[in-house]
Design goal:
The protein is globular, with a radius of gyration of 16 Å. Helix content is about 35%, strand content about 25%. It has one domain: 3-Layer(aba) Sandwich (Aminopeptidase). A hairpin with a 2-residue loop joins β2 and β3 (about 60-75). Residues about 145-153 have low confidence and may be disordered. The chain is an alpha+beta fold.
Length: about 150
């Protein structure tokens, strides 16, 4: 029976399986990563009070995650939640799992009194923009387009 749990409700064994799924997302997107640095990052995030994650399990196996953070938006003078990353294991995509995660995310916001939900997504490719739009998210024309910055050595 599928379940959705907050990451802090997961056992150490489940958290390790979630980390493995997280690393598989780098492989899916063909992005190089350092396993040790990513483990340290996740451990740090788990200790913070502003980070959370919803994990979709099929029995004991995590199949998807939605990482999100608490944020303040001065544009709306309100607290919000921002989806930072969402991933569904490759062979389970297009089966409604992502939809269930987003709906659970919205329910979590409602039960905690958060009124503003945010995310950034591509507007091309395999249509993630259309996916979120179908779930009630709208393009915010008031926001300034993001400029990616990288740190130089």
């Amino acid at each position: 029976m599928p379940t959705i749990k907050h990451i802090r409700e997961c056992t150490a064994t489940e958290q390790q399986a979630i980390f493995d799924l997280y690393c598989s997302s780098f492989e899916y997107y063909k992005v190089e990563y350092d396993d040790t640095k990513q483990r340290a990052l996740i451990d740090t995030l788990l200790q913070s009070d502003w980070f959370d994650a919803l994990i979709y399990f099929d029995e004991t196996t995590p199949l998807a995650y939605c990482f999100f953070v608490k944020t303040y938006t001065s544009l709306h003078a309100a607290m919000g939640l921002r989806i930072e990353e969402m991933f569904v294991a490759t062979k389970f995509q297009n089966q409604g799992i992502g939809t269930q995660l987003v709906k659970h995310f919205v329910q979590h916001a409602e039960t905690t009194g958060v009124k503003k939900l945010f995310l950034d997504t591509r507007t091309s490719g395999d249509n993630p923009f259309l996916f979120y739009q179908r779930l009630g998210f709208k393009k915010n024309k008031d926001l300034i387009p993001l400029i990616q910055l990288t740190q130089c050595d």
